[in-house]
Amino acid sequence: MEKLPLITARSGSTNSPRGSNVGKAMVPGTQCAMPPVMNMEADVTIPRNVWSAWREAGKPRCLRRALTAEERGVLMRRKNELEMVIGGYHASEKDQLAAAVGKMYGAFPAFSMKGGSGTVARIGSVLQSLEAYPGWAVIKACEKVKTQGYVRSEGLGEYTRETHWPPSDAELIEVVRDCAKLYKDQYDSATDLLEAEVE
Predict the structure, then answer these.
(1) Which of these, 97, 98, 83, lies nearest to 27 by C-alpha position?
(2) What residues contact residue 180 under an 8 Å CB cut-off, 6+ apart?
(3) CB–CB of 21/35 below 8 Å?
(4) Per-residue pLDDT tens for 121-142?
(5) Rounded to an integer, what distance in angstroms lies between the CA atom of residue 73 and that of residue 114?
(6) Which residues pair with 33 in a beta bridge?
(7) CA 184, 188, 190, 196: dihedral to nearest 10 degrees?
(8) Which DSSP string do the residues of 129-190 spell out, in sequence order?
(9) Residue of 48, 138, 39, 46 lying closest to 80 (CA atoms)
C-alpha cells in the first residue's frame, strides 16, 4: 500500500514511547494520528456477526440481533475517528493544497505554459470545488495525477489514460473520491450498523 502524502510529526529521538504519534501520518489540523484503514473488530467481525443474511427489496438492511453495548461503543469510536479524516479540508491547509494543485497542473504540457492571474483563478476555483473533500486525499490525488495521469472517459465504455491535458474539476474530484474511498466506506459501514433496526 502506498504511503499517504501527509504531514508527519518527527522527532530527533529514536526512543519515542510505544504508541506515540511520532513519525506517524497526522490528521491535518489536529494532533491525532491517521486512523488505520482497517479495524478488524469494527469493520469485519461485528458486521459479520450482526448483519442479517438477507435484505427485503426496497428496504434498508436489518440486524439479526441488537448490538451489545460493547459493540456499539466500538462502532461509535470507529465512526468518530473516521469522521475526522473524511470531512472537508481545513482552512489551514489551503496554501498547501493550492501548491499541490499548481504542481499537478504544471506537470501537463497543455497547461504548463500558462501563468499569471488566470492560473491563480483556476487553482482557486478548483479548491472551491474540493471544499467537501479531505485535504490529505486532495494532495494524494494531485500527486497521483501528476505522476500517472488520470483516466478519461471517451464514451461508449471507452477509457484512455490522459497525460497531456489536465483534468476537469469533475475528473479531479473522481480521483480524490477514489483516494478517500476506503475510509469513506468504513465510515458508512459503521454508520449503517449504528442506525440499523433489528429484523
Answers:
(1) 83
(2) 85, 86, 133, 134, 137
(3) no
(4) 889 999 999 999 999 999 999 9
(5) 53
(6) 26
(7) 180
(8) HTTTS-HHHHHHHHHHHHHH-EEEEEETTEEEEESSSPPPHHHHHHHHHHHHHHHHHHHHHH
(9) 39
Q: What is the pTM of this model?
A: 0.76
Beta pairing partners, 151: 161
DSSP-H helix ranges across 1-134: 46-50, 69-86, 94-106, 109-112, 117-129
Q: Which of the pair, 81 or 7, is modelled with greater confidence?
A: 81
Angle at 188 between CA 186 and CA 190, to 5 degrees: 70
Q: For residue range 144-154, what is the model confidence (pLDDT) as tens digits?
A: 999 998 988 77
- Set of cell numbers at residue 57: 427489496
Hunting for cell 495521469 — which residue is that?
Answer: 149
The Cα–Cα gap between 135 and 123 comes to 14
The residue type at 63: L
Q: What angle do helix axes 117-129 and 94-106 make, rounded to 10 degrees?
A: 120
Question: By the 8 A CB rule, do 122 and 157 touch?
Answer: no
Do the Cβ atoms of 144 and 100 come closer than 8 Å?
Answer: no
What long-range pairs does 147-155 form, CB within 8 A, spacing at least 24?
A: 147/107, 150/175
The three three-digit cell numbers of residue 59, written as one number: 428496504
Tell me if residue 111 falls in helix, strand or coil.
Answer: helix
